[in-house]
Amino acid sequence: MELFRPWEKDDTVALAISGGVDSMVLYHLLSTIHAQAYGRLILLHVNHGQRAASIEEAAYIEKMAQQDGHICEIETLSIPSDAFSQERARQARYHFFDVMMKRYGADVLLTAHHLDDQYETILHSLLSGRHLPGSMGIPAERGREEYRIVRPLLSVSREEIEAYAQKHGVVHFEDETNSRTDYTRNYIRHRLMPPIKESTNLQEAHLLRLRDDMAEIDDLLQEKAEAFLEGRGADLPRKDFNAQKHIIRLYIMQAWLKEDGVEPRRRYIEEIMSVIASDTANASFEAGDVRIVISYDHIIRKQGKGENAGMMMIEGDGSHVFNGYRITSRLEPHQYPLMVRTKEAGDRMQLPGIGTKKLSRIFIDGKVPRDEREKMPVILDPDRQIIALGEIYNIMGSKEMNSRLLIEKEFTDEPEK
Question: Which band of pLDDT confidence, cut at 50, 70 and 90, is reported for residue 398?
């Protein structure tokens, strides 16, 4: 079986070995046919601590490494079952890898991703809406600060790997959680890929062509974004920005924010763009340590998070953003101006059918977090009577029944769960 081998014969190579058939076959290849392809081999195993069998599996891998004369480092994660997630486990794994690679001066970290993983990743990117910006799929090689990650089996199918394991009697372990379909990747693997493979009219190999085509499209859009941003700095003209096609605006915003090291998820970028394209006069968004300020004809990028806004006046119909809330008003002229501010001591609000109630009690009854209380918009009419409180109360009517005054919580740049 051929391996992708972009490293030198005297390099120190580490293998992320899970105990599954993929990584155990890769280890067998490195220990036999390709035993002369590196200077030293380090095995790195992570026990996620979620299965009873994982203790015996780790012990087997450690003993195997000792018998073959290789160093083996094992990390056991201590993530409680009720707090466990694939993303949290991935972050813990790579922290361990980073430490071990530095300790042993390793040049390359090998992972056993294969061709079927590639297909699943492309489908996941496509169907979850993450196919742009950026290239799709798993790269065969990529840099990670002080070392490289290489996937030697990326052009080898799962079927070939399993056939090799059977032919050579490669011992491996099955993780029963891999058969569950509550994880998105597992759902794609077990529910989507089998019918595709079985169909005579569908060829999974076309997913690779899609990846390559999208990579070229990505390059072209990156060039368009760079041309738009050239010489503009941290202040973009709103009219010129809105004149671009939607996909180019997406690339412009991503590249513009990346200039300050910020890379929000696409969902958050789309929300910022929707406000820029609307009649909202003023708005502010936070992304990492950067604040994006939309002010009339300008889109401005500022370093540092802004303080919660204390007060804002709404003089007429339109849409504004206040401390992460979007406020849209369509009122009669005599109902303006509206004052928008944060809570003050002693604030009381008239609630239809209930009477007056302190805002502090409304917050407690609604179990509103303390930090949210400090930024939630309190809206007052021209007589300085409170007529709305965030999404909790609005005497103008609910947003389902009345669209004259809408208060909605904006999206944030928090990671998706």
Answer: low
20 carries a ligand binding annotation: yes
Measured CA to CA in angstroms, residue 336 lies from 198, 231, 380, 386, 406 at distances of: 64, 41, 10, 13, 15
Q: Structurally, what CATH architecture does the domain formed by 12-198 represent?
A: 3-Layer(aba) Sandwich (3.40)
Is 18 assigned to a binding site? Answer: yes
CB atoms within 10 A of CB 180: 11
H-type alpha helices, 230-349: 238-242, 246-258, 266-277
- pTM, entire model: 0.69
Q: Two tokens at 117? A: 């993983």
260 is in an annotated binding site: no
* Residues 45 and 73: beta-carbon distance below 8 Å: yes
Residue 231 annotated as part of some ligand binding site: no
321 is in an annotated binding site: no
> Which class would CATH give 218-303?
alpha beta
Q: What are the residue ranges spanned by the domains of the chain?
A: 12-198, 218-303, 311-409
Higher pLDDT, 280 or 398: 280
Output the pLDDT for position 144. 92
H or E, element range at 299: strand 298-303
- Look at the alpha carbons of 218, 222, 228, 229 in this order and tell me if their dihedral is positive or negative: positive
Q: Residue 22, annotated ligand binder? A: yes
Interval 199-232: pLDDT, tens? 999 999 999 999 999 999 999 999 999 999 999 9
